[in-house]
Design a protein that fits this description.
Elements (H helix, E strand, L loop, with lengths): L16 H14 L3 E4 L2 E9 L2 H9 L6 H4 L6 H6 L1 H18 L4 E4 L4 E7 H8 L4 H17 L3 H33 L1
Antiparallel strand pairs: 1-2, 2-4, 3-4
Helix pairs in contact: 1-5, 1-7, 2-7
Length: 185
């Protein structure tokens, strides 16, 4: 439901912040690559460094209805009333989760992402705590966060392709135009 200034109210999330973080990170990991390290199999959650911007784009997408779709996961009153506080609380909850569970974390300087390592057994254990509807919604949310995140390397490659295509077009146009003028002389 919405109140008079277009904020949502009376929607109670089923997850507190700590459980939101746990399921969010595992959902990000489910989109990662399976790796072999010695005898252990693990999955990497590649959390993009601009994850907060991605969440903001998702929550403020007016035409999609995502804010209300994810109201079961996120305390939208807290998010929309004091977004800065929500983001700070979220970041602290991630930090605390990583410390509490002794997570191995690496920063990827090439692609600006935070790698968090999960074992397959750990993922299975965590997923068994939640119902399928909650997992499905969080998976959708995680995919959107990853989709909205910017990969600077990919952006630069796209710019290079665009520049090269424009140069080729200009060269082709210039050579066609010069032949056109020669025919008129």
């Amino acid at each position: 439901m919405r109140n008079d200034i277009d904020y949502y109210y009376d929607v109670t999330p089923i997850l507190d912040m700590n459980h939101f973080v746990e399921l969010f990170l595992v959902s990000i990991a489910l989109n990662g690559n399976l790796k072999e390290q010695s005898l252990k199999t693990y999955t990497i959650a590649n959390l993009p460094v601009d994850y907060k911007n991605s969440i903001e784009k998702i929550m403020h997408s007016i035409d999609t209805g995502w804010a209300i779709e994810f109201a079961n996961l996120i305390d939208i009153n807290f998010y929309f009333e004091t977004q800065a506080d929500w983001e700070l609380t979220f970041s602290k909850a991630i930090r605390d989760y990583l410390k509490k569970h002794y997570k191995n974390v690496e920063y990827d300087f090439e692609f600006d992402s935070i790698h968090i390592f999960f074992s397959q057994a750990e993922i299975t254990y965590i997923l068994n705590k939640y119902d399928q509807d909650c997992i499905k919604k969080m998976n959708h949310f995680a995919k959107l966060v990853l989709g909205f995140s910017k990969n600077r390397h990919l952006e630069l490659l796209n710019k290079e392709v665009s520049k090269n295509a424009m140069r080729k077009y200009i060269r082709t146009s210039a050579s066609t135009d010069s032949n056109f003028y020669k025919l008129d002389e």
